[in-house]
Structures are given as structure tokens and as C-alpha cells.
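Our working data are protein records whose layout never changes between entries. Getting from the letters to the C-alpha cells is the skill we practise here. To make this concrete, we reproduce a full record directly below:
***
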Amino acid sequence: MVTEAARWRRQMVRPVLDWYAAVEGVDAVMLGGSTARGDADRWSDVEIGVFWRRPPTPAERLAVAGAAEVRLVNVDGPPWDDQLYLGEPRPDGLMVEVAHTLTQTVERALDELLKGKPDGQVMQLAQGIIDGREVIGPRAELIAGWQERVATYPRDLAVAVVRHNGNIEKFWRWRMFFERDNPLLVAREFVRMTNQLLSVLYALNGRYSGHVLAFKRLDALDLPLAPPSLAARIRAVFDRPAPEGAQTLHDLIEETFDLVEHHLPEVDVDLLRATFHSDRKPLESVD
């Protein structure tokens, strides 16, 4: 179901898509993010991908018809990132994040990704391509080809992602920060390890996860291969007192390792567990 917030954002941004598609040198344009998926809410920005045969000029990037304000976030690329504001200048207008990149850069990046070489930005690009809609431009068929290429998540990529993100070290640090009465750093450690946990689960489920914490609601996590009651238990990690939250997170990680052992036997789970179980004892004195 498409939310009302996504529906009116699609309508508002359509002239911008049309404008980019008509610029000489542009191969294709697509709408991405939550507006493309249909789950945008009243806080959502809009994401657009513009794919070029050649580098865009600053003048082309600034000349977007209908924008109340245009900001060039970076000059050197690819990618080149812009922020447009529709209706009103910032901060009150609808912000549209525009990512410009070269078609050949996308082709090369997908080649490497599909060989099993994980890269957070490229995985985020792959997921954006999967989500993409409202595709237009003189070579719009390019994006359909990319969507077909990334539709099947490579097993070698899953193995590489799990080996990297499953290396969850220094679990004991939460206790050090808790004893120091520093809830900020306890929360930071919980976020770090939860992020790694979710990266592993995304890979197990064949989902690209360049930015796993970009999902809008915990209850919307759609990961069939996962510990039971995943969303509720992640929420408990942060809602409960730190010792209880740490135990919940510990159990989630152990259960995820069990899933890896069963579904990705190529991964040395004993090695991951050894890292996870490593502990540092506090020193009371040195003889």
C-alpha cells in the first residue's frame, strides 16, 4: 500500500524527473528511497538518481527548473550530490536528495559487487536500483537491466558480508561503560553491535544493506531468516536496563550465529564466536 505522503511526493517531484531526463548527456533518471517504495511519511525526503554519459557541469546541476533552492553538496565526483528544495527554500521546503553518477561507474561497481566484493555504498546503490521506479530518460532500459542483474543476491557476497560483519568484537565494553555510569557510550556500543547483527541478517536473507539502519520502523523489518521476535527484542535491548539489554543482545547474536552455521556453512562460525566471546577482565591490582 502506498502512503498518502509517498503519493503526493511522487506528484510534486515528477517535474524534476522530467527536467533531468531532458538534459543532454543524461542517460536515465529514477525515483528512489521511501517515496519509490511507497512507505514515505511526513518526515521523508525524496531521493533521485541521475545517470550521466559524461560528468554534469555545476551550471547544469544548479539550473533545475521549479526548485526553490539548489545546494551543491560536493563538487568532486562521481557521485555528485545535490539537495533541492521544492515549494519553499530550506528548511521548510520538501528536500530532494539528488545523486548524480556516471553510467559507466555504476556498471563497474555492479561488476565488482556481483563478484562478491562487499562495499557499503555500492550495496546501498544496488538496493536503490531495486527500489527504483518512475524511470525515464533516453536510455531508461539501462535501469531495468541493472535491476535484473542485482535481483539475485550472490552467495559469495553473502559469505563476505557475514565474515566481515559477524566479527563482533569487544562485547565486554558495554559493561565497562555501564560501570563508568556513561549511558551514552553504552548505547553507542549497543548500536554498533546491533548494526553488525542486522548486516549479517540482511546478507542471510539476500538483502543489500549498505545502510541497515535506514529502515523507518523496527516492526517493518522483513527478514524471514532471523531470531524469533527480532524487532521486539531489539527494542528491548535499548528499553531495558543495560544488563538486561546486553543479555538480550548477546542471545540475539548467538542465535544469529546458529542461523549462519546452518545456512552459510562456508563461514567459520567458530572463529566468529571466539572473537565474540573474548573478554577483558578488569584489573583490581598488579602484583
Notes: The mean pLDDT is 94.
